[in-house]
Backbone:
């Protein structure tokens, strides 16, 4: 299996060759040359597999340059009940991503039972183990440069802390994460972890990562690695739980299922798109945004109009405060028939601060073939959804999942199960939960008092030159 760039001007490479890096040298994102196909018989054989066995059945179709026994061992080490242990009452941690039935045809898929209480742990724990395997085998080291709006950062730091040969430099928007998220990252005192609070929004942090990644000389000299969802490894690991969720709520493969996905950087729902392209019977993929609704605007109008920092709002679902969705490029590459010249032309416009409109060439007319629908939510909706979910089902959900559920409810149909992805646990957003319910949600005992621990971080302006100097001075 070879991986190609969406912009068509980089050589095709193997999985291990693209594992550590982020952007392709031409600035594009990697995708497999073709998507592996799963037939009805394949799906039947996969029903009832454990999470780890399911992950192997899927990932082994994408990874052909790591011996199968080694890949299996890495997957088995990753997807263990004791790693994804923060289950809700009555859930079985061995399911790794258990489903929670709210009512007939309406479910939550719990993706946030890992060490940092957000769905990022699903892929990041695997990435940590894969990085360690490849680096040890090749006798190499890496300096990871990442951007976070609150959850990728802590998931990456928990996955990489103490790992030999890996340093993590994590950029986050200064004072824009929840108190819990901030404490989760900044309280880590490990020598290989560097937290940098950037005066700006998440998109400024992401732009800094991309600017460094596009500097081939610096990238090679400082062995820069990526853990954001621009890294293909993140996306492919997220494909697995769509299969797991599908099997959990169906009895046979003639049934279709819809998924509602709280969205920001479009990584999570991009994995759903790929699962659908591989033959998983998905009906709708519901893209749910908060007030930063660039993606909702696209799926309603065909116009993609990324916004600048000044028009990116700080909301109570802060991890989705994103106005330039990296992985959207992967989907548009498929939508335009994998025409890399077209994709490159579109992102040349985006990279110079402009919009594009996919109506003119007739591409937007094909959107229905891909199952996407969308909607947006705001603070009042989140509060109301959290309150109603508690009152109706005795379940407390976080603000991002609330965005997903609110938008899902507008896209229900009587025949098709709707699965809402639970992308974080409410403990991460305590102030918002107290506002909605008048009391905090439960948090794992091990994380009590995390906000009072000493914090270690550096404040920086949004400057690619400054982060390069910082990396050079700390390696
Ligand atoms: C809790 C939470 N929900 C949803 C999202 C949005 O996911 P994506 O960026 O993959 O669209 C994120 C961050 O990305 C998140 O941290
Ligand atoms: N929501 C994320 C930001 C997007 O990160 P990605 O790694 O999924 O691209 C966060 O919480 O950090």
Residues:
């Amino acid at each position: 299996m070879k991986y190609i760039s969406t912009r068509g001007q980089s050589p095709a490479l193997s999985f291990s060759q693209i594992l550590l890096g982020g952007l392709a040298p031409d600035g594009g994102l990697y995708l497999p040359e073709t998507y592996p196909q799963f037939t009805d018989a394949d799906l039947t054989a996969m029903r009832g597999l454990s999470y780890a066995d399911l992950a192997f059945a899927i990932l082994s179709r994408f990874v052909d340059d790591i011996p199968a026994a080694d890949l299996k061992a890495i997957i088995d080490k990753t997807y263990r009940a004791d790693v994804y242990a923060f289950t809700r009452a009555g859930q079985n941690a061995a399911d790794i991503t258990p489903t929670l039935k709210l009512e007939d045809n309406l479910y939550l898929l719990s993706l946030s039972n890992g060490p940092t209480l957000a769905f990022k742990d699903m892929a990041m724990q695997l990435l940590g183990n894969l990085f360690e395997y490849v680096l040890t085998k090749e006798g190499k080291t890496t300096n990871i440069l990442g951007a976070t709006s609150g959850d990728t950062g802590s998931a990456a730091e928990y996955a990489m802390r103490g790992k030999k040969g890996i340093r993590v430099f994590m950029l986050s928007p200064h004072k824009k994460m929840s108190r819990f998220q901030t404490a989760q990252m900044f309280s880590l005192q490990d020598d290989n972890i560097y937290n940098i609070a950037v005066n700006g929004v998440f998109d400024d942090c992401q732009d800094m990562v991309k600017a460094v990644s596009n500097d081939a000389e610096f990238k090679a000299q400082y062995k820069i690695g990526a853990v954001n969802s621009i890294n293909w490894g993140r996306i492919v690991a997220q494909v697995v739980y769509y299969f797991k969720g599908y099997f959990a709520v169906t009895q046979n493969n003639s049934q279709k299922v819809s998924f509602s996905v709280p969205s920001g950087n479009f990584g999570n729902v991009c994995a759903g798109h790929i699962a659908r392209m591989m033959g998983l019977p998905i009906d709708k993929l519901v893209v749910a945004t908060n007030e930063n609704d660039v993606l909702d605007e696209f799926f309603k109008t065909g116009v993609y109009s990324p916004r600048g920092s000044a028009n990116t709002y700080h909301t109570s679902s802060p991890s989705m405060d994103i106005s330039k969705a990296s992985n959207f490029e992967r989907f548009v590459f498929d939508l335009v028939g994998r025409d890399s010249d077209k994709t490159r032309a579109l992102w040349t416009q985006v990279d110079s601060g402009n919009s594009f409109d996919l109506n003119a060439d007739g591409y937007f007319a094909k959107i229905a073939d891909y199952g996407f629908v969308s909607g947006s939510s705001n603070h009042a909706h989140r509060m109301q959804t959290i309150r109603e979910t508690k009152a109706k089902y005795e379940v407390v959900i976080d603000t991002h999942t609330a965005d997903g559920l609110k938008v899902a409810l507008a896209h229900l149909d009587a025949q098709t199960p709707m699965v809402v992805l639970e992308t974080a646990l409410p403990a991460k957003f305590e102030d918002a939960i107290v506002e909605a319910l008048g009391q905090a949600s439960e948090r794992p005992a091990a994380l009590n008092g995390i906000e009072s621990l000493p914090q270690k971080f550096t404040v920086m302006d949004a400057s690619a030159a400054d982060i390069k100097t910082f990396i050079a001075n700390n390696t």
Summary: The domain at 93-117+233-437 is CATH 3.40.50.1100 (Rossmann fold). The first strand starts at residue 3 and ends at 5.
